Amino acid sequence: MKCPRCSSNDDKVLESRQNKDGSSIRRRRECLRCGYRFTSYEKIEEKPIIVIKKDGSEQSFDIRKVERGVRTSTEKLKIPAGTIEKLLNAIEDEVVEKSGHERRISSTEIGEATLRQLYKVSKVAYVRFASVYRQFNDLGKFISEIEHIANSVDED
Ligand SMILES: [Zn+2]
Fold first, then answer.
1. H or E stretch including 14?
2. Bridge partners (DSSP) listed for residue 30
3. Which helix (H) or strand (E) holds 120?
4. How far away, in angstroms, is 75 Cα from ligand 1 center?
5. In the chain, where are the structural domains located?
6. How many angstroms separate the alpha carbon of residue 86 from the centre of ligand 1?
7. How far away, in angstroms, is 30 Cα from ligand 1 center?
8. Of the N and C termini of the chain, which has fewer Cβ atoms inside 10 Å?
9. Using one digit for the tens of pLDDT, what is the confidence trace for 84-137?
């Protein structure tokens, strides 16, 4: 697979993981030339998961978009790479589960799944993600949102 940084085709696979319903394989790769680590996402099933956005438009689900948001939110927090991988795996599983046979899910549900997982890992990352990806009209709403999610985490 072509390295996104140096375009070399030599890489090694660090980790492969098939999602719960077997529809995709995600591989964590390391470029043998420049050492850059990247993720490839291979769909096994033809039918993609469709994400319905707030404005009603649709696009196919791409875990890399979630990954970008997660990486931005966890920047400089010294969260181990393995923890982030697990978090992304958990989000992906949740997306697959919630999209069901219809294979459709709203972007809001993906955002909420991401928030729940981030909350478990880092409160700072959670607040960062929430403030960037969600619109909170006032502080009260923001705080009640945090409490609501904190409660739903406790119920797990
Ligand atoms: Zn490279």
1. strand 11-18
2. 12, 37
3. helix 107-121
4. 22
5. 1-46, 47-154
6. 24
7. 8
8. C
9. 999 999 999 999 889 988 889 999 899 989 999 999 999 989 988 888 766 554
